[in-house]
Design a protein that fits this description.
Layout (H helix, E strand, L loop, with lengths): L4 H11 L5 H16 L8 H12 L4 H12 L7 E8 L5 E8 L2 H13 L4 E2 L9 E10 L3 H10 L6 E5 L2 E6 L4 H9 L8 E8 L7 H16 L3 E6 L6
Antiparallel strand pairs: 1-2, 1-3, 2-8, 4-6, 4-7, 5-6
Helix pairs in contact: 2-3, 2-4, 5-8
Protein name: Probable transcriptional regulatory protein SAMN05192533_115124
Subcellular location: Cytoplasm
Organism: Mesobacillus persicus
């Protein structure tokens, strides 16, 4: 599938290594998920997904507990989940998911991040049709054949299983996220190198060096925005 998920995660974590930004974003995401449903992840699937993803980024338990306690406290803050679509240099495609309590601010910030870096915002649906919602997991200590056998025995359907370095990467339909998770849990595997619900480009494109540098600058600008949760794109960055 061309996405080297561990390298992507490590790059993001490295960029945020000396700041609390990534933890603050997870704190907000956990708070909103807990507030929209039950604060118990076993009764709230959206919260369970966020917590599994937070675990792969080593988000401290204090951050998680504080966010859930805030949701339990009946705080009346209201946040909207938004999706923006746009184009980068050379027609590259980008999807931006945001979580905000100020829609006008977020729209303005996202538009500026696109515009200042050779891109432009598109209308809803202008890009997303070229992406597929996908559940992605990464596990270590097993071969692709072992993972395939494990999932077949659990009657879990997946799209693809690939080896990437020391990890095996599993691609599945979004509604199989918890089935994959439970299949591994049942054999004692509870730690994942990747556990994401993502938007996967159907086809990746390569950019010439100058356009790629500009594109990466645009992606960094989008990811740096306080309200932005996730950024997806169709460019092969050679990671």
């Amino acid at each position: 599938m061309g996405r080297k998920w561990n390298n992507i995660k490590e790059k993001k974590a490295s960029k945020d290594a000396n700041t609390s930004r990534i933890y603050a974003k997870f704190g907000l995401e956990i708070y909103v998920a807990a507030k929209q449903g039950e604060p118990d992840p076993e009764a709230n699937q959206a919260l369970k997904v966020v917590l599994e993803r937070a675990k792969t980024y080593n988000v401290p338990k204090t951050i998680i507990d504080r966010a859930i306690d805030k949701a339990k406290g009946g705080d009346d803050e209201t946040y909207s989940e938004l999706r923006y679509e746009g184009f980068g240099p050379n027609g590259s495609m980008v999807i931006v998911d945001a979580l905000t309590n100020n829609v006008n601010r977020t729209a303005s910030d996202v538009r500026a991040a696109f515009g200042k870096n050779g891109g432009n915002m598109g209308v809803s649906g202008s890009v997303s049709y070229m992406f597929d919602a996908t559940a992605v997991f990464g596990v270590e200590g097993k071969t692709a054949d072992e993972v395939l056998e494990l999932l077949m025995e659990a009657d879990v359907e997946v799209r693809d299983i690939l080896e990437e370095g020391d990890s095996v990467i599993i691609y599945a339909e979004p509604d199989q996220f918890h089935s994959v998770q439970e299949a591994f849990k049942n054999v004692g595997v509870t730690d994942f190198t990747v556990a994401e619900l993502t938007m996967l480009a159907q086809n990746e494109v390569e950019l010439p060096a100058d356009a790629q540098a500009q594109f990466e600058k645009m992606i960094d600008a989008l990811e740096d925005l306080e309200d932005v949760r996730q950024v997806y794109h169709n460019v092969d960055l050679g990671e």
